[in-house]
Amino acid sequence: MSTTYTPARAAALSGFTLDTLRYYEREGIMPAVARTAGGHRLYSEADISTLGFLRCLRDTGMPIELLKRYGQLCRDDDTLAERLDLLREHAAGVQQQIDELLEQQRRLDEKIGWYRGELDRRAGTA
User: Fold this and answer.
1) Rg of the Cα atoms in the chain
2) What's the pTM?
3) What distances in angstroms separate CA 40 from CA 5, 13, 44, 100, 115, one per listed residue?
4) Per-chain mean pLDDT for the chain
5) Over 70: is that where the pLDDT of 126 sits?
6) Alpha carbon distance 10, 123 (integer Å)
7) Residue-number span of the structural domain to which 81 is assigned
8) Nearest Cα to 115, choosing from 105, 126, 103?
């Protein structure tokens, strides 16, 4: 028998709130989740994996509209090329953010070095 998870456990594993899990399912970002006879959601290992990837996309700044588009594309096996394009475009944006952050880090390090040097000079140790 395969492992299933309650919504609370799925939320804990994914880092999303229960409201977000419901929203993602309602908006088609997340495929429909299996339910018990009583109507309670049960998340599979595949669902948890999907949530993990959605978390990655969200944490890297993918806008909700693109998350929705990705969810729509995932429901059709004939959209692999479109999914690839969407993810490549997003990855390029992430790389640009990384490059910008690295430049900002370089500037911070430069200023930190200047302050260290200035403090050493004033203390007479330079």
Assistant:
1) 22
2) 0.85
3) 11, 18, 13, 45, 59
4) 96
5) no
6) 56
7) 76-126
8) 126
